[in-house]
Amino acid sequence: xxxxxxxxxxxxxxxxxxxxxxxxxxxxxxxxxxxxxxxxxxxxxxxxxxxxxxxxxxxxxxxxxxxxxxxxxxxxxxxxxxxxxxxxxxxxxxxxxxxxxxxxxxxxxxxxxxxxxxxxxxxxxxxxxxxxxxxxxxxxxxxxxxxxxxxxxxxxxxxxxxxxxxxxxxxxxxxxxxxxxxxxxxxxxxxxxxxxxxxxxxxxxxxxxxxxxxxxxxxxxxxxxx
Amino acid sequence: xxxxxxxxxxxxxxxxxxxxxxxxxxxxxxxxxxxxxxxxxxxxxxxxxxxxxxxxxxxxxxxxxxxxxxxxxxxxxxxxxxxxxxxxxxxxxxxxxxxxxxxxxxxxxxxxxxxxxxxxxxxxxxxxxxxxxxxxxxxxxxxxxxxxxxxxxxxxxxxxxxxxxxxxxxxxxxxxxxxxxxxxxxxxxxxxxxxxxxxxxxxxxxxxxxxxxxxxxxxxxxxxxx
Lengths: 226, 226
Hints:
Helix content of chain A: 10-25%
Mean pLDDT of chain A: 89
Order of helices and strands of chain A: HEEHEEEEHEEEEEHEEEHE
Largest sheet of chain A: 9 strands, mixed
Oligomer: homodimer
């Protein structure tokens, strides 16, 4: 049985290489468009150092696969996430590095299957969010808050922000479409949150519901619109 | 443990009553806008009479709940849908009445969990679609084809088609949005297939991925755009 996280990692890689293939060559247009990558974030967990210790009995996560942004990675470790009434997701991937607060990011479909109703939030904004129970091989953590649906967002560096004429915290639109038979799922996502930081590559993060709704796997055109 | 189909039926009803509440009163505008209902179709199965007999050992489905369109209903009966490598969805609702061909409609998220890669198709267009196994209390049916992701579509009668200036098989856009904090998920779905028939009420059908991507549950505005 192929793990869903693995499937989604594969999908994500297909999408990446697809868009990389369709991205304009450097200097094709004046000014040249930045390479736009759209990634699907399958459900995942960010942990504090203290929670890594409790759940896995060790000091560090084990790097399995680098993510597109430098320094970020999918860990070998996974957790069981348990909701109310003992419904659970058995294998939720942990992303590193560790953070100051533990956070669980679910698509709404995941949350429904778990019996949790999380708000749509920017990463890190966890006040008044629901909790859950995390079960690892060495211990259990009861979170009183930290479960969110991550708000659709785009990471970019200052040069990309200048190219699009946007600033940190602005909102943009992302249109996903395809040629031919696959275009039945063309979709424009509004209110894509702009997050500008030094040293960050241009990358949109959607969740699995959004990626599936737009059939990103078969799309061949993505446009970021101010 | 609350069955997912029940949860989704509840969500659908909330959405319906919400939009009914926000619909303009009759003759509020010249010409008055038709009442627009957006329904989420959770994964479901349509069966032939012969398959009802094999799977349940009886001649007729049992009506559980009427759907919005007159004459259509959710049945008491559910099936297990089994994909390759024995992955399965244990409880998939059957919708009535019966049809000439058996058809399984899944969102992509469902299909990924089942290990099937269905194409996006108009209902009834089943050539070259994947099959699956249906398991009922009295028998088993092996489908060689019939699994699709239903293409997003809008049902309407001739008067509504005249109001919007569209014809059968045209394509429209559906914009879903909300006020305040819930607007982070505003989404425009393109290529919504128009299906015009006599005696049909105006109703958009999305699947769970689309409804969840746009957070339809918290939306308070839906617009059908030519």
